[in-house]
Amino acid sequence: MSTSLRTRLLDGARGALIGTAEVVPGVSGGTIALITGVYEPLITSAGHVLTGTRTALADLVRRRPLDRARAEFAQVRWGVVIAVMAGMAAAVLIAARFLEPVVSEHRPQAFAVFFGLVAASLWVPFSRSGGAWRPGHWLLAALAAAASFLLTGLPAAEAEPHPLSVAGGAAVAVSALVLPGVSGALVLEAMGLYDATLSALNTGDLGYVGAFALGAVLGLGCFVSLLRWLLERHHRTTLVVITGLMAGALRALWPWQRWAEEGDSTLLPPTTDVAPTVALVVAGAAVVAAVLWAERWSRPRGTRGTGGTRGTRGTGATGGTRGTGGTRGTRGTGATGGTRGTGGTHKAHEAPGSRATDASAEHTGWEGDRAVHS
Predict the structure, then answer these.
(1) Whether residues 292 and 334 fall in one domain
(2) Do 273 and 170 share a structural domain?
(3) What's the pLDDT tens digit per position in 54-78?
(4) Same domain, 84 and 158
(5) Rounded to an integer, what distance in angstroms lies between the CA atom of residue 261 and that of residue 243?
(6) Facing residues of 80 across strands?
(7) pLDDT per residue over 301-314, tens digit each?
(8) Which domain holds residue 358?
(9) 276 and 130 inside one domain
(10) How far apart are the C-alpha atoms of 246 and 124, rounded to whole Å?
(11) Among the four 252, 273, 298, 311, which has the fewest Cβ within 10 Å?
């Protein structure tokens, strides 16, 4: 088997893992993309596709050559993108066929697992928001959680979802591919579209699937660009709001509800099957913890914040990261100064005026991706 074919097959397998994660509320496809190493190529390629498309449309209207658009499209890693998307599509169809009967026939148990998955996933936006929250951040998160809690408590529509609501839900859910830690399936569940989407995939409802696909494309072109702008300009505030929205959306996954009445989401106290339900919640949380652990240890050793070398010591407000173990390094002089290593090798201070890496930058993803596109 040639190296190129082997690589494409591996990319397809990575896409299958991402697609499976996207079907399960609480598991982020973006996080799986980070772990498998295709997050940056996918996001970078998506940026080139969007820029190339906008440029091509503008140049066509102005009757200009399409050289700029061709240059953008030439930078897309088409081999990776096509293989990953093919794997995702196949996995989504297979996972949807498996999950629909599980959710419909064992709803309390399934939602207990989903509840644990989402509750543990709150750590991702919280930890990546950068440093300790001030009272204003907690208040903002509480307001976002309250809004999300109220919205997810609205009675579900009895009629079939309108194509516009399907497209809108898809446009918001596609943000999960940009935000590691955020689950697209959770967004659909909170909007009352999760069951309908699984059913449409299994029954081949082309009208529903077409509206969903259109919304996903529009979301990539509009909402994702807005979201990336917010993350670049208002990083902490955006992640505080996301944390609150995810916390409030847990209402939709509360395992004790009046399941017998369709559309009735009245919350009940945990009085029945408490022990097995709590065990399922813990199991779901353990899955996310294992995924986050795998993400952390799949990063290059120099980005973990520990190990045999002493990390760069910053001069910014948040300070730098230190490693451990080893022999004492040399002491520097001049503007950059020196550091006393307890690590294996010596690294110099950052020059004055430069900012230290934020503690949240240990988690590659939003921060690393912002650097790619800036």
Answers:
(1) no
(2) yes
(3) 899 999 999 899 999 999 999 999 9
(4) yes
(5) 30
(6) none
(7) 655 543 333 344 44
(8) 301-374
(9) yes
(10) 11
(11) 298
Mean pLDDT of 357-362: 38
One-letter-per-residue 3-state SS of the chain? CCHHHHHHHHHHHHHHHHHHHHHCCCCCHHHHHHHHCCHHHHHHHHHHHHHHHHHHHHHHHCCCCCHHHHHHHHCCCHHHHHHHHHHHHHHHHHHHHHHHHHHHHCHHHHHHHHHHHHHHHCHHHHHHCCCCCCHHHHHHHHHHHHHHHHHHCCCCCCCCCCHHHHHHHHHHHHHHHCCCCCCHHHHHHHCCCHHHHHHHHHHCCHHHHHHHHHHHHHHHHHHHHHHHHHHHHCHHHHHHHHHHHHHHHHHHHCCCECCCCCCCCCECCCCCCHHHHHHHHHHHHHHHHHHHHHHHHHCCHHHCCCCCCCCCCCCCCCCCCCCCCCCCCCCCCCCCCCCCCCCCCCCCCCCCCCCCCCHHHHCCCHHHHHHHHC
Q: Are 202 and 99 in contact (CB under 8 A)?
A: no
The b/e string for 56-95 (b: 16+ C-beta within 10 A; e otherwise) is beeeeeeeeeeeebeebbeebbeebbebbbbbbeebbeeb
Cβ neighbours, 10 Å, residue 10: 15
Interatomic CA distance for residues 354 and 314, integer angstroms: 8
CA 303 – CA 14 distance, rounded (Å)? 22
Can you give the pTM of this predicted structure? 0.61
Short-list 145, 119, 163, 155, CA closest to 27: 119
Q: What is the maximal distance between C-alpha atoms in the chain?
A: 74
Residues with Cβ within 8 Å of 321's Cβ and at least 6 positions away in sequence, in order, are: 305, 311, 312, 357, 359, 362
Question: Average pLDDT for residues 236-252, to the nearest whole number?
Answer: 87
Q: Which of 175-179, 282-286, 335-339 has the highest mean pLDDT?
A: 282-286
Distance (Å, rounded) from C-alpha 283 to C-alpha 327?
A: 42
CB 373 within 8 A of CB 49: no
**Residue 219, token pair as written in the block:** 């979301």
Same domain as 313, residue 289: no
Q: Is 305 exposed, middle or buried (0-12, 13-18, 19+ CB in 10 A)?
A: middle
